[in-house]
Amino acid sequence: MKPTILDMTKIELSQRITPPFRAKQIFQWIYAQYVDDFHVMKNIPQSLRDTLSAEYDIMPLHILNKEVSRDGTIKYLFALRDGKTVESVLLRMKAAEYDSGGTLLHHAKYTVCVSTQVGCKVGCSFCLTAKGGFTRDLSAGEIVAQVLALKKDNNIAAERRLNIVYMGMGEPLDNLDNLAKAIKIFSDDDGLCIAPKRQTVSTSGLSSRIDQLGAMNLGVHIAISLHAVDDALRSELIPMNKAHNIASIIEAVKRFPIDTRKRVMFEYLMIKGKNDDRTSAKKLVALLHGIKAKVNLIYFNPYEGSPYERPGKASMIAFQEYLISHGLLCTIRDSKGIDISAACGQLKEKANQERV
Ligand code: SAH
Ligand code: SF4
């Protein structure tokens, strides 16, 4: 199997071809023209086109299936070249708006939820991805290709900026090198131009890796999947909490370089009867004291055989109001795409017979 050219940053590509400046043109063809064949790259000399197509593939995945939700969310199932599958989700955060004369006021706003691994090693008790265990890391190119394929499939103009959340399948910080490379490739000015500040890495809390990511100074946001305020419950939900406990995560967050205008997002999965009470809310306020934080409450999304229950709206709102009245910013995540199992924690690798 040939390597995919998407695995390379522009600098790496320029070091492998002569003359090096052609890397910029190749990037533009791939990421701005959505071209999937070297021979179409008209301004590249024939000899270089031949060498490139002899040595590299472009797309390392293809669309196997897609499902469209009532709210416009689209879930994609991609096949990788070894036959493994991953899912990604295109979320339309805001529809395009026009004034009464039909003039465009603003374009639709999109966020793409990308996967970083096939499966996941962390094994959270509430997450469907965890059920299938861990298969393998995605390469940087396989991460980047998800967004490229979604933009192309939806005819999203190359210059339309979108946001990326690393909240699909897998634990991004467990695949840190490829993640860091993908962040750089996404942000290339001749590529997809998605600045790091538009990218959010969600982690279950590998505290030492939070430090490593911070030391890379990439400029990305982080979201911490906290979900519990005491270590006993958090270890039940996220087994590796025993090695990376709450205190170590909070310390790592305090060290993480964030844009002074921004906040660290703490995701808090609300599970009925487990962590949705007033005492937990109170402890959460104390825990986040002194951190520029924003809490995002997530309804537990049940799946077949899941061990927990979704809380009622009233307890979500009561929890939110408690946090807000105690000075914390707090939002409730609307579960986009829930009718097609595209919401958080509902993505998984598909067995062969489920493919369409
Ligand atoms: N591994 C990373 C990112 C992928 S999971 C992480 O854990 O942060 C993305 C988000 O979905 C996490 O906040 C995760 O806790 C949440 N999630 C997992 N299973 C869920 C479920 N069944 N219902 C709601 N959210 C879930
Ligand atoms: Fe992995 Fe995140 Fe799912 Fe936990 S919640 S098993 S870390 S994908």
Report how far apart the termini are: 25 Å
The secondary-structure class comes to: alpha/beta
Q: Quick one: CATH class of the largest domain?
A: Alpha Beta
Number of domains: 2
CATH architecture type of the largest domain: Alpha-Beta Barrel
CATH superfamily membership of the largest domain:
Aldolase class I
What attributes does this structure have?
single chain, 356 residues, alpha/beta, DNA polymerase, domain 1, TIM Barrel, 2 domains, 10-stranded mixed sheet, two-stranded antiparallel ribbon, 11 helices, 21% strand, binds S-adenosyl-L-homocysteine, binds iron/sulfur cluster
Structure description:
The chain has 356 residues and is α/β, with parallel strands linked by helices. It has 2 domains: 1-58, DNA polymerase, domain 1, CATH 1.10.150; 59-96 and 107-355, Aldolase class I (TIM Barrel). It contains 11 helices and 14 strands. The strands form 3 sheets. The protein has a 10-stranded mixed beta sheet with strand order 1-2-3-6-9-10-11-12-13-14, with helices on one face. Helix 1 (10-16) crosses helix 2. The protein is globular. The mean pLDDT is 94. It binds S-adenosyl-L-homocysteine and iron/sulfur cluster (SF4).
